[in-house]
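REQUEST FORM: STRUCTURE PREDICTION
Request ID: SP-0412
Submitted by: Lab K.M.
Chain count: 1
Length (residues): 248
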Amino acid sequence: MEKQKLFVLFQNYVTDNIIPDFTLRQCALFEKYFDELIEWNQKFNLISFKSETDLIYRHFCDSLYSAKAIKSITHDTHLKVADLGTGSGMPGIPVKIAIPEIKLALVESITKKCYFLENANKKLGFDIEILNKRAEEVGQNPLYRQQYDIVLSRAVSKFSPNLEISIPLLRVGGHFIVHKTKNSAESKEEGLPSVENALRHLGARLEKTIPYKLPEQELDYCILIFKKFKDTPAQFPRKPGTPEKKPL
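STATUS: Completed
RESULT:
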């Protein structure tokens, strides 16, 4: 599909379903981001998509539901936000485009992906902090631990380790926003029933669920919003690799 037509469809979907006041300038920033992703993805395997339409709907629109989630829990836009395991910058960069006042940190352990993130940050004219570190290390660093209003996570597979690396970064009263398929969120083995123990240890509880569907996608999706209600014990997150090997 012609790119101009694709972005008209994108803007229409976003304004109708996600962000009613989405502007032409914001759409133009997405187009810049889109161009960089297409170019860099030919050199590095940054992100998987079947077509340009798939990139727009399954990645851009999906990421923007994090911005919708933030707007559903607070009217404040001057927020400290961290995106863990951001990969090619999602959902963090789309959220920054939608809510430009946020102070954003992107956490990514793979160096070549951080090269792309630095480039995208420059091309988009943003002031994003890019941390080429393991999330477990960031969570134990006093500069970052319990410093964020919002932590974002998308496309991170195992739920309990994901909570363990995310919740320690939140201030008490902050929110963790995670993308899931509906089936994954409800699964006894890997969904909400499986992380009750982890939530007790980490000091967070589920506050809200936002279900949604995406164009041209068969799956049902949801965003889970957790609120941190007490300090996370100092031993969490554990050393890199441990949350995956020995989930709470």
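NOTES: The chain has a mean pLDDT of 95.
Reviewed by: T.R.
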